[in-house]
Amino acid sequence: MSFLNVLVPDRRPTLETERLILRPFRLSDAGDVQRLAGAAEISATTLDIPHPYPRGAAEEWIRSHRPTFEEGLGVHFAITLRETETLVGAIGLLITPRHNRAELGYWIGVPYWNNGYATEAARAVVAYGFRVLGLHRICANHFPRNPASGRVMQKAGMTLEGTLRQHVKKGTAYEDLVTYGLLRDEFMRLTGEQ
Ligand SMILES: CC(C)(COP(=O)(O)OP(=O)(O)OC[C@H]1O[C@@H](n2cnc3c(N)ncnc32)[C@H](O)[C@@H]1OP(=O)(O)O)[C@@H](O)C(=O)NCCC(=O)NCCS
């Protein structure tokens, strides 16, 4: 247990949806993270998840979450099934405080794909971002070869804004990113809050 854990209460949120509980990661999740995020399919369509997944990387990633949250730079959630507490994926917002905006990112373990879990989690995290964090804009990007992620963004209410040509380098290849965004006003109108 770290110094921070002893002295400062953990203020990180837990969100509940119909089928999911989105909670802070614990160090005891590291084995599941390594197994699920370590699948080649996850690395293939994400920018920063390596394959093979190095030993110890999951612990290091989980340890980074609390300071990131305390500094107002982001929030990470473990996506777990309400009924069984099974960890099925991860979702989070990386915040740029200067512009009061965040980038949404997520992955779901391969055995759990196409059950609507990413969509359910994304909707909850987007709502948390606007209602609780008071963000002005939430954006998200996917590789053109990953249309399933585009569907998640659409179903979370986001608008297609275009393609950033060869915007990132993955390995040795420059790749396009399809970019989506949602503004606070649009979210409020979608949810009937305005
Ligand atoms: C992208 C990802 C998060 C989707 O998770 P998921 O829980 O399966 O997503 P959902 O079930 O909520 O929604 C998937 C949607 O994509 C659709 N879909 C799945 N495969 C598809 C394909 N090859 N082409 C088009 N649509 C596809 C599904 O039909 C569903 O849409 P629908 O509800 O309109 O039918 C998951 O595949 C994943 O983790 N991939 C690897 C990591 C990754 O790419 N993360 C996102 C980086 S931007």
Describe this structure in words.
The structure is a single chain. By secondary structure, the protein is α+β, with helices and mostly antiparallel strands. It has one domain (3-139): Aminopeptidase, CATH 3.40.630. The protein is 32% helix and 31% strand. The chain is built from 7 helices and 8 strands, in the order H-E-E-H-H-H-E-E-E-H-E-H-E-E-H. It has helices at residues 3-7, 30-37, 40-44, 57-70, 117-131, 147-155, 184-190, and strands at 15-16, 20-23, 74-81, 87-96, 101-108, 137-142, 159-170, 173-183. The chain starts with a helix and ends with a helix. The chain binds coenzyme A. The site of coenzyme A has 21 residues, from helix 3, strand 5, helix 5 and helix 6.
At the first level of CATH, the class is Alpha Beta
SSE arrangement, N to C: HEEHHHEEEHEHEEH
**CATH architecture grouping:** 3-Layer(aba) Sandwich
CATH homologous superfamily - what is it?
Gcn5-related N-acetyltransferase (GNAT)
Strand content: 25-35%
Radius of gyration: 16 Å
Within the CATH hierarchy, at the fold level, what is the topology?
Aminopeptidase
Annotation keywords:
194 residues; alpha+beta; Aminopeptidase; eight-stranded mixed beta sheet; 7 helices; 32% helix; globular; binds coenzyme A
Helix and strand topology:
Layout: H1 3-7, E1 15-16, E2 20-23, H2 30-37, H3 40-44, H4 57-70, E3 74-81, E4 87-96, E5 101-108, H5 117-131, E6 137-142, H6 147-155, E7 159-170, E8 173-183, H7 184-190
Parallel strand pairs: 5-6
Antiparallel strand pairs: 1-2, 2-3, 3-4, 4-5, 6-8, 7-8
Helix pairs in contact: 2-4, 5-6
This protein binds coenzyme A.
Coenzyme A (COA) binds next to helix 3, strand 5, helix 5 and helix 6.
